Amino acid sequence: MRDKFRYICYIAAGIAILLFSFSLSTPLFKTPYSPVLYDRNNELLGAVTATDGQWRFPPQNVKDSKFATAIIEYEDRRFRFHPGIDPVAIIRAGIQNIKAGKIVSGGSTITMQTIRLSRGNRNRTFFEKFIEMILALRLEVTHSKEDILAIYASNAPFGGNVVGLEAAAWRWFGRSTDELSWAEAATLAVLPNGPGLVHPGKNRDILKQKRDALLDHLAKQGFIVEEALRLAKSEPLPLEPKQLPRLAPHLLSRIVTEQKTKPGFSYINTTLDYKIQERAGVILNRWAKRFQSNGVMNAACLILDTQTGETLAYIGNVDTDVAGDVDIINAPRSSGSLLKPFLYAAMLDSGELMPSALVSDIPTRIGSYSPENNSKTYVGMIPADQALARSLNVPAVRELRAFGIDRFARLLRSLGVSTLFRHGEDYGLPLILGGAEITLWDIAGLYAGLSRTATNEDKSSKFFPPAYNPQKQQNSKRVSLVSPGAAYLTLDALTYVVRPGEEAAWQSFASSRRIAWKTGTSFGFRDAWAVGTTSKWTVAIWVGNATGEGRAELRSTTTAAPVLFEIFSFLGSSDWFDKPFSNLKVVEVCSLSGFPAGANCESTKTTDIPRNAPHHNPCPFCKIVTLNEKQDRQVVLTKSGAEKTVTKKWFVMPPAEEWYYKRWNLDYKTLPLLEGVSARSIPLALFNPEENSQIYVPVEIDGRPGQVVFMAAHRDSNATIHWHLNENFLGTTQVFHEMETRPQPGMHLLSVVDNYGNTIQRRFKILNTADY
Predict the structure, then answer these.
(1) How far is CA 592 from the centre of its chain?
(2) What whole-number distance in Å separates Cα of residue 115 and Cα of residue 624?
(3) 3-class secondary structure for 266-328?
(4) Do 715 and 735 form a contact (C-beta atoms < 8 A)?
(5) Which of 315, 553, 584, 653 could disulfide-pair with 608, CB 3.0 to 4.6 Å?
(6) Helix, strand, coil % over all residues of the chain, rounded to 5
(7) What confidence score (pLDDT) does residue 500 get?
(8) What is the DSSP letter of 769?
C-alpha cells in the first residue's frame, strides 16, 4: 500500500513539474489595444486603431452574452466542465487525423485556442499541440472560465484588421456585443476559425451555411424559438466594415496624446454625456454650415456641469475640410472681452468699484493707446454694472489702469488661466480687450468657478479647471481670491441689465432662463466667443477660423450667441443662485451717482456690495451751489450779502463726461456758469494728451508724417476754444472740439483757451521711430 501511495505521489509530482516547467506570459497577450472612449454611462463615443493598425478593444466580460453561448456551442461544448483539455475531443480528432493521413482536426478547446493565439498561431505540430495542452492546464488553474472566455473573445481574429469581439461587433454590425442579435452572434462565433469568410466573394456562401447550421443547433438546444430562428436566418451578412462612432474625436486625440507615455492605457471612461454630446454636435454643425457661407469655417463647444466641473460635451471642431482636425478647445485664442467680469469682481472686492457707481466713458488716450467702444460712441458716464453688461471697452481699460495690469494678470493666473506666460506689463492695457490669449477650456472653467463661488460658504477657492476624468478630484486648499458676494453681483450684472443693439434680441431669453452670459469678439474679427453659466450648466462657444483669418461678418452676437442660447434651450432650465446674504452688505448710495451717499446728495437708494469690501469715498458729484435769483448763473457770495441768492444741491459731472452724458440723458441739468470771471472750477476739459505722455505717430502710406487728433470738451455748448502748440496758433473750434496736427518728434506744449479765459496746458513727447 505504501509503495502504491509513493508511486501516486511521484506521478503527481511529475505532473506538477511538467505543468510548471512551461510558464505563462504575464500578461498573456502583450499586443496593444485600441484607445476606446466611453461616456459616463459606458456608451461608446469613439475609438482609434491600436499602434499595430488593428481594431482591438480591451477585454470585456462576455459571460451572459449571446456570443458566449454561440461560441461555446460551436467550438467547445464541454468548455465549462473540462480542465483546459478535452480528452473526448482529442480522441475524436486523433481518429479523424489517422483516417485523413494528416492533421485535419486539432481537438482544441477554447482554452487551448487562447494559448495558441497568445503564442502567435505557430505551425501545428504534435510538440506545439503538447505545449498548448500543458499551458492550457496552467491557464485553467490561474483563471476562471469567464476570464478565459473574455481573453479569447478579445483576441480572436474576426476578419481584416478586426481583432476581438467588441471591435468586431462595432465594425461589422455597428453595435455593442450586448446588442447583437442571434444571427449576428452566430456569424461572429464562426469567424475566428475562418476570418476570411467575411469578405465579399464566394466564401460568403460558406459563411452563411456555417452561421445557419449553428443557428439550427442553437434552436435544437432550446436557445432559440422557431419563429426567432426563421427571422435570424433571414438576416443578411455584413458587407463593408461600418464606421465607429466619432462623437468626440478631438477629446480622444487629446487623451491619447496626454496618456501615450502611460502603459496599458486603452479603456477611457469619461464624464461626457452621450445625448448632450450628440445633440450639441448637431446644433453646432448646423450653425457652422451657415457661417461657412461667409468664410467662417470652424467652431467649438464645451459644456460643463457647473458644480462639479465635469465635462458633459467636448466638441473640439465641426465637420469641415478646413483645419477640421484642430482641437480649438485647447488652442490659445484672443480672449476678446471675456475677462472683463473678473476685473469687475476683483474691483468690487477691493472697494475700487461699486455696482451702481458711475464710471467714465469718454475718448481716452493713454500714451499711444486709444481704446474705442465697439459702437464708436461714448455715453460720458455709466453705472459700472451696465458698463460690464454692455461690454464697453473704454470703462474697462480705465478700470484696468486703476487696478493695475500686473495685479490683474496675477489674479487671472491664480484663477486658472494657463496661457499668460509673460509679465503682466508686457500685455499692457489691451489685456482686458483681448491682448492676451486664452483657451476655451480655461474660460469655461473660469465662468463655472465664478458660479460656484457665488454660493460658496467656506473660504476655499472654487476655481479649478474642467475635468473629463471621472476619478479626478477637484479639491483646493487655496483661499478664494473672489468673494461669494462679488461673484454673485458679477453674475447679476451679466443677467439683468438690458443690452443694446443685436444683443437685445437675446435678452428676453436670457432673462427668462436666468442665464449669466458674456460675448466677446477679438480684434480683426478673428474670434467670436459666447459663454453662459447657471447653477447647473456652463456653456462656452467659439466661432472663427482655425487659420487665424479674420472675417468682417464674424461677430459674437450673430454667430456664437445664437449657438449658445439654442444649446441652453435643450439643456433645460436650472435654479438661479440663492442670494448670499451673509456675504453681502447693504449700503446707502446716491441715486444719481451710485457712490456712497454724502451730505450733498439730494436723494438716495440702497445697493448691495461685498461684505468685506473697504469703505468707498462718498459721492464726489453732488455739490451745494449758490445761484442768482433766476437760477441761471452761479454767484460768489460777497461780504455785503446784498444779492438775492438760492442755495441748491446739484449733480455736477466733470466737463468731459458731461459733454457726452447730456447727449444721451436729456433730463440732465447742466450747472449754470459763474457770473463774472472769477471761476471756482474750470468748465473746460482736455481728453488727450495726458501730461508727460509719449505718443508714437505712424507714418502715412504716402510717406508723410501721421496726424494726431486732440480732443476737448466744454460745459458751455456755445463756448469757443483756441488751440496752440508750442505757442503757435493752430485754430479755433466750436461745438465739436477736435484739432488735427502733425507735430515733429520731440517735446511739445499744447495749450487750449476758452472764450472765458480758462486755460489747460499739457506737455507730451512725440517719439521717433527709433525710440519706439
Answers:
(1) 39
(2) 98
(3) CEEECCCCHHHHHHHHHHHHHHHHHHHCCCCCEEEEEEEECCCCEEEEEECCCCCCCCCCCCH
(4) no
(5) 584
(6) 35, 20, 45
(7) 46
(8) T
Q: C-alpha grid cell for residue 614?
A: 473697504
pLDDT recorded at residue 756: 77
E strand or H helix that includes residue 656: helix 655-664
Residue with cell 438775492: 644
Could you give the 3-state DSSP secondary structure of residue 711?
strand
Residue partners of 24: CB distance under 8 A and separation at least 6: 135, 138, 139, 142
At 365 the pLDDT is 81
Which single residue is written with the C-alpha cell 461677430?
555
Element (H, E) at 678: none
Report how far apart, in Å, the C-alpha atoms of 36 and of each of 166, 327, 466 are: 11, 18, 21
pLDDT for res 512:
61
Closest among 568, 593, 661, 657 to 280, alpha carbons compared: 568
User: How many helices (H) and strands (E) in the chain?
Assistant: 22, 26
Radius of gyration of the chain (CA): 39
Question: CA separation (Å) from 703 to 441, 616, 684, 706?
Answer: 45, 51, 36, 9
- Catalytic residue, chosen from 65, 118, 335, 337, is 337
Sign of CA dihedral 720, 721, 723, 729: positive
pLDDT at position 607 is 96
What cell does 437 get?
490669449
Task: Identify the residue whose cell numbers are 439654442.
Answer: 566
Alpha carbon distance 94, 350 (integer Å): 89
Give the H/E segment covering residue 37: strand 36-38
Q: List the grid coordinates of 315.
A: 466638441
Residue 166's identity, in one-letter code, is E
Output the CA torsion 192→196→201→203 (10° steps): -50
337 is catalytic: yes
Residues of the chain with pLDDT under 50: 200, 497, 500, 677-680
Whether 75 is catalytic:
yes
Q: Which residues, other chains included, contact 743 with Cβ-Cβ below 8 Å and sequence gap of 6+?
A: 697, 708, 725, 766
Angle, to 10 degrees, between the axis of helix 182-190 and the axis of helix 165-173?
120
Q: What is the largest CA-CA distance in the chain?
A: 145
pLDDT at site 677: 43
Q: Which of 681, 548, 701 is nearest to 623 (CA)?
A: 681
In the numeric block, the cell 464541454 is attached to 78
Rounded Cα distance between 318 and 296, Å, is: 11
Residue of 160, 21, 543 lying closest to 320 (CA atoms): 543
Q: Determine if the peptide bond prior to 618 is cis (ω within 30°).
A: no
Tell me the residue ranges of DSSP E strands in 369-474: 380-383, 437-438
Query: What is the C-alpha separation between 12 and 288, in angstroms, rounded?
Result: 73
Any long-range contacts for 624-631 (C-beta under 8 Å, 24+ apart)?
Answer: 624/600, 624/648, 624/649, 624/650, 625/649, 625/650, 625/652, 625/671, 627/672, 628/675, 631/672
DSSP element (H, E) containing 337: none
Please calculate the CA angle 135-137-140 and round it to the nearest 5 degrees.
Answer: 110
A 10 A CB-CB count for 172 gives: 24
Catalytic residue among 75, 399, 437, 503: 75
H helices of 440-586, where? 440-454, 484-496, 504-513, 560-571
